[in-house]
From TrEMBL:
Protein name as catalogued: Neurofascin homolog (chicken) a
Keyword Cell membrane: yes
Annotated gene: nfasca
Classification via InterPro entries: Ig-like_dom (IPR007110), Ig-like_dom_sf (IPR036179), Ig-like_fold (IPR013783), Ig_sub (IPR003599), Ig_sub2 (IPR003598), Neural/epithelial_adhesion (IPR051170)
The entry's keywords: Cell membrane, Disulfide bond, Glycoprotein, Immunoglobulin domain, Membrane, Repeat, Signal
Domain of life of the organism encoding this protein: Eukaryota
Keyword Repeat: yes
Pfam families: Ig_3
Domain Ig-like: 15-103, 117-204, 234-322, 327-414
SUPFAM superfamilies attached to this UniProt entry: Immunoglobulin
Lineage: Eukaryota, Metazoa, Chordata, Craniata, Vertebrata
Source species of the chain: Sphaeramia orbicularis (orbiculate cardinalfish)
Intracellular or extracellular location(s): Cell membrane
Amino acid sequence: GERRPPPPPIIKQPPTIIKQSVKDYIVDPRDNIIIECEAKGTPVPTFSWRRNGKFFNIGKDPRVTMRKRSGTLEVGFRSGGRPEDYEGEYQCFASNDYGVALSNKILLRVSKAPLWPKEVLEPMVVSEGSPLVLPCNPPPGLPPPFTFWMNSAMTPIPQDKRVSMGLNGDLYFSNVLAHDAHTDYSCNARFLFTHTIQQKNPFTLKVHTNEPYNDTSFNATDPYGGRKVAESTPTFLSPSGSESSKMVLRDEQLLLECIAAGLPTPTIKWFKKGGDLPGRKVKFENYNKTLKIVSVSEEDAGEYVCMANNHLGSIRHSIFVQVKAAPYWLDKPTNLVLAPDENGRLVCRANGNPKPTIQWLINGQPLESSLPNPSRHVLGDTIIFRSVQMGTSAVYQCNASNEHGYLLANAFVSVLDMPPRMLGPKNQLIKVIENNRTLLDCPFFGSPLPELRW
């Protein structure tokens, strides 16, 4: 029979995190809390956690268990306890003899669906043709609720160019018609996690109308039934004033809004100073009152102008948009496997606005507080290794942070000394057809990387 190849050597390997919970982790208070952290390595890593920067003693808390061969935590509330008591910042450490890898700092918060404050809403009284804003002010949920307006029959309030909900949830009327008079304008908040809908107490709207000046002029298509209603030039209901500013993060969504009052209902148009609105990126919503760019990039910064006009006149509002950026990778450090006396480098390049600061850690401790190592030199975003020695395997962390966020990358440096060896079966017989191409494979392993000769 054929000789089996010897098993490949067991390669010692520092830990690598392969699964972790998201940085901003919102959990449902009705479920058990599960905070994920899994890592691989040889030998198999052991796990520990920090909570709010301090060692988290899992053994002391009967509600917390850690999964086998994993760092994943589960917090159960069968025997009482409050999920809110576990809110905070968690970080997982996976270690073996060759180094320590870190998870991100996971900010755990419990979702909230607070109630509307109790309030008595006075009836709103307006004259026909005037503008009106019905405030919603939904309770600040975590995550924020989705808002919409209904009447008591649970029918949505019809929206159009004249009547629509703003981004803040308020209901805006560019001008009020007599048939807007109802007793049941109710703002609703739908909460994502609990799938509950809460209704604000309804508003009653009373509309003062002038007497018709004579019945013969009544015309079925005239919304004022022959009543004299003064027309008005456009004014802005939101935003107020002639200019405002907005900061948005790169890759996030930009939403700009202009809502105008006036009779007849004004039309909204958008421009960008010193350039065109890129048609493929820009969408208009809510009857042109909202300008939306789904994934913002640096070139979307600048001055946006909305113009509201009807036949009596036009007004404009400038919104100055600034684009900032949480750190993003240009060059993420990758694992290094080196042989004794070899050289190598770890590179950690990130960009952002403001420019991120780079900090290096070794096995989770700041590099500057670790023992000096003559074969290691830090040059800003690069660590250079010169003629490394056995016993200097470690996991390095690079943290790039600015006021808008951070990136944390783990990369191990593994120093291996392994004699060259063939990994394929010995004395293989390969049959080939004349004039056809064939491939002879010779798998091998070693550290330093052996030279191959046929």
